[in-house]
Design a protein that fits this description.
The complex is a heterodimer of chains A (about 475) and B (about 450). By secondary structure, chain A is α+β, with helices and mostly antiparallel strands. Chain A has 18 helices and 11 strands. In chain A, strands 1-2-6-3-5-4 form a 6-stranded mixed β-sheet. In chain A, helix 14 crosses helix 18. Chain B has a 7-stranded mixed β-sheet, with helices on both faces. The longest helix of chain B has 20 residues. Classes of the chains: A alpha+beta (about 475), B alpha+beta (about 450). Chains A and B meet through helix 3, helix 5, helix 7 and helix 15 of A and helix 3, strand 6, helix 4, helix 5 and helix 9 of B.
Chain lengths: ~475, ~450
């Protein structure tokens, strides 16, 4: 009944004005209240949060053993009564294998947990399980790595077993035969899944006759002939104090660690005789290789371009650039363009790989054959545009915030910690790296990121290898 | 956003080794809000970080027939925004704050998880609580995510050359039971899903009294209580939709699947017994946990010693047991036959070897097995992210914090005679399915 009310009212205009002013005030405060209390406001939540930022306080120290001067980085960490060792023999990985001994590092790694001079394979494994000790070895592209985890309670047994393994591995005929048979199956399994077939072809196409192009399992013709002496030769020439790096974390003091280092690693040979591994020569102009494979659900692509080593001055700018281009999560440029906005793929990504002789900027995606060409075009467009125009200030700011805020996530377990300490040494990052790392990130400017984008995301400057069903033209 | 079926628990307890029995496994504590949300907290102050998991006790088994993939598609759409927070904003805010977020759907559950710096906890709580009640699914986002889960199925399932075998095997194992489903849904099911299907699932199951929040890391119990109340306390429960009805499995039946696939290069064999779980027979689960370890977990187990080392019929054999499910559990034995040994011959050898292990089981052997299982439990105090995974799956099947924390005590108390009885009963009186996958050109 608006008419009646209005007709009763004198001074209608002034009343209306008052109402308008009142409503406007209400509206303004309402908008403020809405923004402040009803609408989602991340900054307000964070500023009022009861849990504030803390730094991860534990600092690494360098331990030098009293007798043999063996070095290790240590983080003493007592949350749980456990100790983790990560160590590597630098340069003793697969790329260092002789041409007719392909697979020797992997077979040696497998055989090192098959007993010692005094313990059969079964006796050795029983001891590991009874004392809850984990010992394992693996051969990477560049380095030969080992790890040991033990409870504080059984650490003496753990050190004794590790020492025994490194000095007096058993390498029994029977265990070697079994290991070979397992590898023989691994060669068969390796050629079933299209992703795995692609990985083999990718390395071969990229590196050709360089050792990086070899099958990571080795060569069956070589492996089938290995004997215990071959394995011993590999150890004597590749595993020494000279190329040994060690990271330790957990419930152990610097002083105790010094003695453990002497005891466990002190009897290793002083020097290695590892052959020189040359740098591969790759021309990163757009090249495409298709492998026909009808059985899979999708076509799969892997791509690679020139990258940078960990100590290169372009490392951090490219690290930030890569995060924006194709780094983890759904908000990278690649993910937004191909997945979030078009629904053409479940995953598309890029990452930096740091092989000693061939650091790369790599990535991949998979998509059904009907959508595949479109994703491939998107990759090319996003790549070229990123190289030419670079990233915005906002993107760089967000990427840096991510890299800073997610930093502490890597300190979840003592095994992670000892692994980080190991790589700090491999990459010569310095003992104070954990304290300095965030400053390195903070100091990266948009300009630096975009210079890196221009330098590394060159027009069509990547090689891609693809597997699946391709339209013939 | 991957599909897993309780892989976490198996990984932890099967691989980790131990130390004289301790009272504390994770040192977890639990409380429940008035609206029914259960909260489980495990403190670990090593680093200023936390794992945040929100488990909904609804998964693929709760989908209507023919609507396979609904739970999983909803999981994806939970990242596409609410009436308060747009999807792009959700992702941008989390990323900017260094939060690693993901989710998975299994037959029994759907879980959303984040690892984050402790200073960002309230932000994640606000976002996760918001999408418990305010999810907004637009038709555009619906059709985009349906395309994405289709691609996901193609990548994760169909790219795998043994997928047709795995999918058929699940069917012959579970027959009419809802565990016969594929979490991703079949291609046709995915394509036929509607926005309404997904919305109904959300409305029916994403209620606080059907959820568990797990926090593991640098947070104390009191703060967790205050914050849980602040962000989740006001959320009203909604009437729950009807959950899956689990049909009874007929005991002492067998089924068999033999398949030849073109891209397969070497044969494999799997035998699976439909076994007791925490929800079908609590009393049996620790017997079978110890039995599986004794029988076939690791390279000092009976099957490994007999079939790999002595008889050389296989190059690898292992058993596994999973009791963390809403319906039945699973006891499996899988193996790769050695060259010149047919899968059929290996199956016979396995059966004989299992019987032999059962016969030769004695108190000393079982004590040694238990010792191995107990000596490494202290490792569970190390990584808060792993702690959250294990606490989550165990809580989600209905285990209390006391049940979980007393794991060592349960293992200690298992008696040799009970193991023998329970294992004999499972091996002779439950449903078993044998699967043989052959490479082309062999039978």
């Amino acid at each position: 009944m608006p008419y009646r009310r209005r007709s009763k009212t004198s001074g209608f205009l002034s009343k209306t004005l008052k109402l308008v002013v009142l409503l406007a005030l209400l509206g303004l405060s309402g908008k403020y209240l809405y923004k402040q209390y009803i609408c989602f406001n991340p900054d307000k939540i964070l500023s009022e949060s009861v849990l504030k930022e803390k730094t991860f306080a534990v600092k690494p120290v360098e331990v030098v053993s009293p007798k043999y001067k063996i070095k290790a980085y240590l983080i003493e960490e007592k949350t749980a009564p456990i100790i983790s060792f990560s160590f590597m023999f630098k340069g003793a990985g697969r790329a260092s294998e002789d041409k007719d001994k392909q697979g020797i590092s992997g077979v040696t790694a497998a055989m090192l947990t098959e007993g010692t001079r005094n313990l059969t394979s079964q006796e050795f494994k029983e001891k590991l399980e009874n004392y809850a000790i984990g010992i394992s070895f693996s051969s990477g592209l560049d380095d030969f790595s080992g790890s040991m985890i033990t409870t504080s309670e059984h650490q003496e047994q753990a050190y004794a077993l590790l020492k025994d393994v490194l000095l007096h591995p058993r390498f029994a005929e029977e265990d070697l035969t079994r290991t070979k048979l397992q590898l023989q199956k691994a060669f068969l399994l390796q050629k079933e899944h299209p992703q795995s077939i692609l990985n083999l072809n990718f390395a071969e196409y990229l590196y050709q006759d360089h050792p990086y192009g070899r099958n990571p399992l080795g060569k069956w013709e070589d492996i089938s002939k290995f004997n215990a002496q071959d394995l011993m030769n590999f150890m004597q020439t590749h595993l020494s104090q000279n190329n040994l790096l060690i990271g330790v974390s957990g419930d152990i003091s610097a002083e105790s660690l010094g003695h453990v280092l002497d005891n466990v690693f002190g009897s290793l040979p002083k020097n290695t005789a590892i052959g020189f591994v040359r740098n591969p020569e790759i021309d990163f102009k757009m090249a495409d290789k298709n492998i026909d494979f009808a059985a899979g659900g999708q076509n799969i692509t892997r791509f690679a371009a020139k990258g940078v080593s960990r100590n290169d001055e372009d490392f951090y700018p490219l690290y930030v650039a890569n995060h924006i281009f194709g780094g983890s999560g759904l908000s990278s440029r690649l993910s937004k363009a191909a997945r979030e906005e078009k629904g053409l793929t479940y995953s598309i990504y890029s990452y930096m790989s740091l092989a000693d002789k061939s650091p790369l900027l790599q990535g991949g995606f998979s998509s059904t054959a009907d959508k595949y060409a479109e994703v491939k075009n998107i990759l090319q467009q996003v790549w070229n545009e990123f190289g030419q125009k670079g990233a915005s200030d906002e993107e760089v700011k967000n990427a840096k915030e991510y890299l800073l805020s997610s930093y502490n996530l890597r300190f979840a377990s003592v095994a992670n910690l000892s692994e980080i300490l190991l790589f700090m040494q491999k990459d010569n990052l310095g003992l104070d790296f954990l304290q300095k790392r965030n400053t390195y990130i903070q100091n990266i400017s948009t300009k630096k990121v975009n210079e890196a984008a221009k330098k590394y995301f060159t027009p069509n400057g990547y090689i891609s290898v693809n597997i699946g069903s391709f339209a013939k033209n | 956003m991957v599909n897993i079926k309780n892989i976490i628990f198996l990984g932890l307890f099967a691989c980790l080794l131990s130390q004289p029995v301790q009272a504390k496994l994770f040192g977890a504590k639990s409380f429940t809000l008035d609206n029914g949300l259960q909260v489980v907290v495990a403190e670990n102050h090593k680093a200023p970080i936390v794992k945040y998991m929100l488990w909904y006790k609804a998964g693929a088994v709760d989908e209507p027939n023919g609507k396979g993939g609904t739970a999983h598609l909803l999981e994806h759409l939970m990242f596409r925004g609410t009436s308060k927070v747009s999807g792009a904003m959700f992702d941008d805010v989390l990323k900017k704050n260094g939060v690693e977020s993901n989710a998975f759907t299994s037959l029994d559950f759907t879980a959303y998880h984040h690892v984050l710096d402790i200073s960002k906890l309230e932000l994640v709580m606000a976002l996760e609580a918001d999408r418990m009640e305010n999810l907004q699914i637009t038709p555009e986002n619906f059709s985009l995510e349906r395309d994405i889960v289709y691609q996901e199925r193609k990548q994760v399932v169909d790219n795998n050359p043994s997928a047709p075998f795995t999918e058929s095997y699940r069917k012959i194992l579970w027959q009419e039971h809802p565990y016969n489903r594929s979490v991703s849904g079949t291609e046709n099911e995915i394509k036929s899903l509607t926005l309404e299907d997904v919305q109904n699932f959300y409305n029916g199951f994403y209620s606080p009294d059907n959820a568990i929040l797990v926090l593991a890391g640098d947070i104390d119990f009191q703060t967790a209580q205050v914050l849980a109340q602040k962000y989740y306390g006001e959320i009203k429960k909604r009437p729950l939709a009807a959950k899956a009805k689990f049909s009874k499995i007929k005991p002492a039946m067998q089924s068999k699947l033999e398949m030849t696939l073109p891209q397969i290069n070497t044969p494999r064999l799997i035998k699976t017994y439909i076994a007791p779980s925490f929800n079908t027979d609590k009393n049996a689960i620790y017997d079978l946990t110890v039995f599986s370890k004794y029988l076939g977990e690791g390279e000092t187990s009976e099957l490994y010693k007999d079939l790999v080392l002595k008889q050389k019929k296989t190059i690898s054999v292992s058993s596994s047991y999973d009791y963390t499910s809403r319906s039945y559990g699973l006891f499996s034995i899988s193996a790769l036959p050695a060259d010149g040994v047919s899968p059929q011959e290996l199956e016979q050898a396995i059966d004989a070897s299992v019987q032999k292990a059962l016969r030769e089981m004695n108190i000393d052997k079982i004590n040694n097995t238990k010792e191995k299982m107990l000596s490494g439990l202290v490792y569970l105090q190390d990584n808060p992210f792993d702690a959250a995974d294990t606490l989550g799956v165990m809580s989600a099947v209905g285990m209390s914090v006391a049940d979980i924390e007393n794991h060592a005590e349960h293992i200690k108390q298992v008696k040799y005679q009970d193991i023998k009885e329970t294992a004999t009963k499972m091996l002779s009186q439950t449903f078993v399915a044998t699967g043989i996958l052959n490479p082309k050109g062999e039978n």
